[in-house]
Write a structure and sequence with these properties.
Elements: H1 9-20, E1 26-36, E2 44-56, E3 59-70, H2 90-96, E4 107-108, E5 112-117, E6 123-128, H3 140-153, H4 171-183, H5 187-195, H6 198-207, H7 214-222, E7 226-229, E8 238-240, E9 248-250, E10 257-260, H8 263-274, H9 282-299, H10 307-324
Parallel strand pairs: 4-9
Antiparallel strand pairs: 1-2, 2-3, 3-6, 5-6, 7-10, 8-9
């Protein structure tokens, strides 16, 4: 589990004034509940719910906030440079900038409530509390609509990206760097181990032919048109609304940056398949790529992107994602899928 963050009422009060609009907010009492551990990324030490009561203009008032504890990543990884793919303060810097004002109104995000400097212990990134979010049951039509929506997000104007150095290449570069550092040296042993067991041998037969093409797959992504990305626009980071007003709430903008047009579709398609909302068929692959391309070109009529370019990026990134999270643990279900 996440370790509890160093926090007291004095540090919470400024956040409460922003959240409540009160002139002053003195914390009466509070508790810290871990929501998500920091395992998996050295820049995160966990996500927490901070809840209790404060003395405000209207007496004793309950509150509940969410804080992400961010650190520079040491000793595992030095993420202090703004241009590092895993820059530790990227989410803070994003919401301190004017870029969120450019987001399409259909894509919402938890209200940003500022940040707290913890000195050598990092910083806290504060958001409104959305409550306990139930696991969403997506229809395939909603997944396709999410692809249309993210195409609009990818179309925002970032011609001034040079003024925002934290908008680096994001998680994709990280996957490729980690692959080179950790995966390539042991690839022969991994293949040998995979072939020794029937289940993993089946996975290798399905995915293994792509391994020698990693450099070519990377080139497809690097040479594609670049645009602003959420960076991790997968179904696990999305809360579907699909009503009046915003249609989706997007969480966790830590990996936002500039990357290949179509990248977000790979995350949507992979997680739709993983969660059973897609069969992974070639027909569905074509449908979601076409929906994204049409939406993107509506926003960029003077400089459209081709469906073929989007399909190539989604296919290449889909493989990179699957490989990076551990292809030997994935169930490829080759007998049920005609998407090769």
């Amino acid at each position: 589990m996440a370790e509890l963050i160093p926090l007291d009422g004095y540090l919470i009060s400024p956040v409460l004034t922003r959240w409540s609009g009160a002139v002053t907010a003195q914390v009466a009492h509070f508790a810290i509940t871990p929501l998500k551990s920091g395992v998996g990324n050295p820049t995160s030490k966990g996500v927490y719910r901070i809840h209790g009561e404060f003395h405000g203009e209207h007496g004793l008032t309950p509150f509940s906030l969410v804080a992400k504890h961010l650190v520079a990543g040491l000793p595992m990884m030095d993420c202090s440079d703004q241009r590092h793919w895993n820059y530790w303060r990227r989410e803070i810097d994003l919401f301190e900038s004017a870029i969120p004002d450019r987001f399409p109104s259909a894509i919402a995000y938890p209200r940003y409530l500022g940040w707290t400097d913890l000195g050598t212990q990092g910083a806290l990134f504060w958001n409104e509390d959305l409550g306990d979010i139930p696991e969403a049951q997506w229809s395939w039509e909603q997944v396709v609509q999410a692809a249309r929506l993210v195409a609009r997000l990818n179309s925002i104007d970032v011609g001034d990206a040079k003024d925002f150095p934290f908008l680096g290449p994001g998680v994709l570069r990280g996957w490729l760097e980690l692959r080179e550092q950790f995966f390539n040296p042991v690839i022969d042993d991994v293949i040998s181990c995979a072939l020794s067991q029937p289940e993993t041998a089946a996975a290798y037969q399905h995915y293994g032919t792509f391994l020698p093409q990693q450099e070519r797959l990377s080139e497809v992504v690097w040479n594609a048109r670049q645009a602003f990305m959420h960076g991790d626009f997968n179904l696990n980071n999305l809360v579907p609304l699909f009503g009046d007003g915003p249609q989706i709430i997007a969480l966790d903008w830590q990996q936002c940056g500039i990357s290949a047009v179509g990248m977000e579709v790979a995350a949507l398609f992979n997680t739709a398949y993983d969660n059973g909302f897609s069969s992974g068929s070639l027909a569905e692959f074509n449908e979601i790529c076409a929906a994204y391309t049409e939406s993107f070109n509506t926003e960029n009529a003077s400089s459209p992107v081709s469906l073929d370019e989007v399909r190539k990026v989604v296919a290449a990134l889909g493989f990179v994602i699957v490989e990076s999270v551990g292809i030997w643990l994935a169930n490829p279900r080759p007998e049920n899928s005609d998407a090769q």
